């Protein structure tokens, strides 16, 4: 496992090649504090029935600073979900290093796959069941705080099946927050949602990142929607299993837009 970077460098004098590369990366991504997520030379391959190894992720490296909302973007099949599953610990990489600050929590694409209890309150409290010595007061207080963070406090007693898709996503995020999670891994949460629900979920995540500055909750949000980048601090852009660019959201947005327009020009001229 990678070591967390200290915010204060006490021996800055002689840099070896690795340190120079780190400094270059930090200049690119603007990392100034602690790192919440880091991948270094991450590879993942699967084997076909004929025993041929097929690379899915190729040499992926990037860092996400604590307390920020980052997006993971790229064309269909480029490896976003696979990378997120590795960060979540659901899948093991073939090689390379991964660090994700703990506790971490993974929220899935389909809201119906993750809300399991009959009411909102019971659902958010569900994950706390494993802490056997936690008092009822503590459970209640965590549930209220978590629902408050995603703007769902007024829905505590609501039956889950009466919620919209976006409200279910926010309840799922509250469940992760109730467990004091430090890193939220969010897989295309807006895929099944209508426009107003999409906006509601992304704003809820952005608000909680802003509100928790002291506690430094970090979120990595997988998306196809370029317009969602406006809510992000930073982004990782992938193509064909590789991290092509990573850095601040405005730079990545510009990079993708230039790519898209040159692609459209190419189609137009052929
Ligand atoms: N276990 C597996 N066995 C074989 N191929 C796999 C496996 N897991 C992923 N892949 C392939 O790896 C590639 C990346 O898949 P992944 O789901 O990570 O992409 P993605 O960027 O999330 O795609 P999308 O945007 O369409 O959801 C795809 O071509 C997929 O078919």
UniProtKB/TrEMBL annotation:
SMART domains reported for this sequence = AAA (SM00382)
GO MF entry, a single one:
ATP hydrolysis activity
InterPro entries named among the record's database cross-references? AAA+_ATPase (IPR003593), ABC_transporter-like_ATP-bd (IPR003439), ABC_transporter-like_CS (IPR017871), ABC_transpr_CbiO/EcfA_su (IPR015856), Molybdenum_import_ModC (IPR050334), P-loop_NTPase (IPR027417)
Q: Where is the ABC transporter domain?
A: 37-265
Q: Which domain of life is it from?
A: Eukaryota
Annotated GO biological processes are: transmembrane transport
Q: Which UniProt keywords apply?
A: ATP-binding, Nucleotide-binding, Transport
Q: Which GO terms describe its cellular component?
A: chloroplast envelope; membrane
Pfam families recorded for this chain?
ABC_tran
Q: Know the name of this protein?
A: ABC transporter domain-containing protein
